Amino acid sequence: MSVSASILSLEDAKDNFDRRKKEVTHFFQFVELVFNKKPDLSFGEDFGDNHAFTRRITKMLLANGYLVIYNLVEATMTNLLDAIHVEVCSVEGGFERLRKELQILILKRLRDRNLSELEKMPERIGRGMVQYALDTAPEDRKVFRGNVDARKIKEASERYGFSFEIDYEATNYNGGKRLVLVKSWRNKLAHGSHSFVECGDASSVDELKKISMEAISYLECVMAGVEKYISQKEYVVPI
Fold it and tell me: What is the C-alpha separation between 10 and 7, in angstroms, rounded?
């Protein structure tokens, strides 16, 4: 069994991060323009006069910032774990060569598989067993389940056995702590417990932009840790 085609390499993960980081940057540039310059919307001669951004619309626009940031965070972490899976599944010697944390992770994944699927396990001993356990087809990708924050990221690093150093100055001395706020508002909006206007009322452009920059810096630290983990093959036990 081969690793799912949806799984990305580290270079793919880095490219995707750069693209989404630009999306975040461009979004907040536009939000700042709307709040500071208060431009009108122009629809052309066929659609009547210009229309100003109302207070409600600007607040709704600002609330979307939490969704944009959260999208970057969860996509980046999922892609980084994909990149680890690619490397782990290519290890010669398979399961026995992997570090203890990964062996435990794989055994837990196998435990959670359908019993009828496990009947095929004798055919998958070694590297095939690792691929079988770590394969993450799109319909089965539930690594973070919409609840990723700094705590979840730390837990993932412990499960996989990689470490990363936080640049506290770059993260405004928050070290990713405000990702929980991003997650919280994302879930409130997604599940309908709060409106976009309510969310926007509780936020400011300057503060949300700072949170986005902190999130980007924090993810860059995590990515550097994963890159070291992969380049130095820290996922295997030294021979």
Answer: 10
More confident: 155 or 43: 155
Q: Is the pLDDT of residue 4 over 90?
A: no
Cα 174 from Cα 32, distance rounded (Å): 23
- Cα separation, 149 vs 229, in Å, equals 21
Map residue 40 onto helix, strand or coil.
Answer: strand
Q: Residue 39 has which token pair? A: 């431009």
Tell me the average pLDDT of the chain.
86
In this predicted structure, the answer to whether residue 135 has a pLDDT above a threshold of 80 is no
Share of the chain above pLDDT 90, in %: 60
**Residue at 48: amino acid letter:** G
- Check residue 131 and give its pLDDT: 76
133 CB burial (10 A radius; 0-12, 13-18, 19+)? buried
pTM of the full structure: 0.87
Q: Which long-range contacts (CB under 8 A, 24 or more apart) does 168-177 make?
A: 170/217, 170/220, 170/221, 171/214, 171/217, 171/218, 171/221, 172/210, 172/213, 172/214, 174/214, 175/150, 175/218, 176/149, 176/150, 176/214, 176/215, 176/218, 177/150
Burial (CB count <10 Å: 0-12, 13-18, 19+), residue 74 = buried
Structure tokens at 232: 């130095």
